[in-house]
Amino acid sequence: MSAIKGQKPWNAGTSKGWIDKRGYRWVYVTENGRRRAKRAHRVEMEKHLGRPLDPWEVVHHKDGDTGNNAIENLEVQEWGEHTIGHHSGARHAWESKRSMEVFANLRENIRHLRRVNVDLLEATKLGLGIAYDSGLNDEDYVVKEMRAAIAKAEAK
What we know:
Layout: E1 18-19, E2 25-31, E3 34-39, H1 40-49, E4 57-61, E5 74-78, H2 79-87, H3 94-133, H4 141-155
Helix pairs in contact: 3-4
């Protein structure tokens, strides 16, 4: 019998997930109010690090056993490093090499944007201080916009 609309089922949160054909355990997690499936080793590493993993970060099983999700057996590697470790000596098609290059450029662009965002946040905070020193108050449009931008940047 299913749960009544608006109520949680009696067994919610008790699932151990399932194992796919490659041996990875999948579990359901709730992110941003939405339920989604995620590989268990990534969930464990995110809990351990206390932050979400970036898309280019791969969780590597040191002993090669995809069922062993003990934190001592897991390490975070970048996608390219992980690929090289598993495919050293292999020949890659041009498309594979090109996709690795594109991902490397994407990672570098994201790092650059994060550094710029930090600089912009600091500059906005400095500008807000100058605005207060020049006599503007919380009712002025510029101050409202700066405070909103700072709040939005710090919420992430």
